[in-house]
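Batch 3, record 17
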Amino acid sequence: MAVSSPCGDPALVDLVRAVQRADSALAMLHATQALANSGHPDAAPHLVEVLGFNNPGAAVAAVDGLIALGHGAVEPILTGLDCHNYGARAWAVRALAGIGDVRGLEVLEEALATDIGPSVRRAAARGLGRLDLTPLPQEVRLSVSERCLVALEQGCGDGEWVVRYAVVVGLESLVPALHPEAERLQRARRALGGLGDPRAEEALVVRLRAAQALERIDGPGATAAAGSEHTHG
Amino acid sequence: MDASGDSLPSAGNPGNGDPISEEEALRRLRQSDDPSAQYYGAWWLGRNRSRHPEAVPLLREALRQRRPRDPGAGVEENAVARNAARALGKLGDSAVAAIPDLLAALEDEDHGLREAAARALGELRALEAVEPLRRRLASGPAVAGALQPGSPRLQEPCEALLEALGDIGASDPALVAVIRPFVDHERPLIRSAACRALLQLTGEPQWGQQLVQLLQHPQLQVRRAALMDLGAVGWRPALEPIAATLAENSLKLIALRGLAESDGDQPVAAGAHPQASPAEAMGHGAVLAAMDALL
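Prediction for the assembled complex:
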């Protein structure tokens, strides 16, 4: 990817130049932090470029910066998605999950279903539970939350405990968007019940978190069984 | 490429990645013409925690088919034996029958095989391994913990031996006395393993505090090890330091899982430590909240 040239604001020009000229991992980290902290709306495409530099520290700073920029960063992230650079794509999924803009839905669905990295699927599951649906018309809100619910229901079968943990957190935070439909709430409860069941879920921490989620949804006492069997393994 | 800190299975190269069935894994381990297929079969059975009745007998056999090391031989039999030991450690109660074979492997000349056997014996909580493990460490950091000439290895696989003793958890003063000098070993990873074992065996908070200090170590590798060690013990007072450590969220989540799943009233909290810290008093909820924030 060609390194784009900044235009306009001279303060931004300097910050972007510092990123482009960084000659060590540490210099790159500091330059990225400075660019991210600027909060400049035009910083987004330059932060997206940093995601592809194979510098985890700088990528974390860039993701934080993109999340702080919020909805304005979504278009540059989607435009910059690079199918050939797995690392860059993984960081982009995390940024989209953190921003919670509904335009990221498709990327998050695909990441949870197919990404090879557990940490990417984990971020996607978390993100699918907290898309911001408030600006959407009622019927769109319904279809988007349905897609999130389906994706998370399927995520219950993930092979990694940490992804299933994130699915629990995603389902819990999706619940307000499912109200007041009893049928869809019931599906979320059923999914959480499965992840809280010691016969079906081997990771105690997932069962504990599922029990907590159900308790928050339905009040205490609803799921006494879920976390009770204490096993190591 | 691994921007996100995921640990991919260290299956080695042979056949890595192609999904196979349990039957196929058993078949690969059963044949003996192709050690690299055996290597993968052994790994698969451990990774998938096979309950098949043939798994443990075949792994025991693989553990016995070792020979003096021959570095030119590609995937040699000892590599299969090492993977068999690792797999047995993951099979829980059904692998108890293999404990005598693992004890024999603990006396092998192959350093890597001793290491794998020690870890497996720790995972199986094999009480009969305490004495042989202790004996391997008894000469102390100056002998067992000395560098092998011309190699980055120590004379004994100290980290694995220490961790196994802590995991088995049979505490007695003589054992603690053998472990204790290793908290001053020159290698921070050995110090971390020794503190972990002592925290598990004695519950004394000073060892947990030393692990928490290692979370600030300049080397990422050391911070990672201290995270895993605190998670393995499930020491609740480490909650906030773990969450604040400069390391991948994936590893912090694994460590915090250990805290969430520990009773909170194990020897560590009930023992020598009169003033319970706030993190202990908070219980699971605080740990889960910290985990949620790292997703």
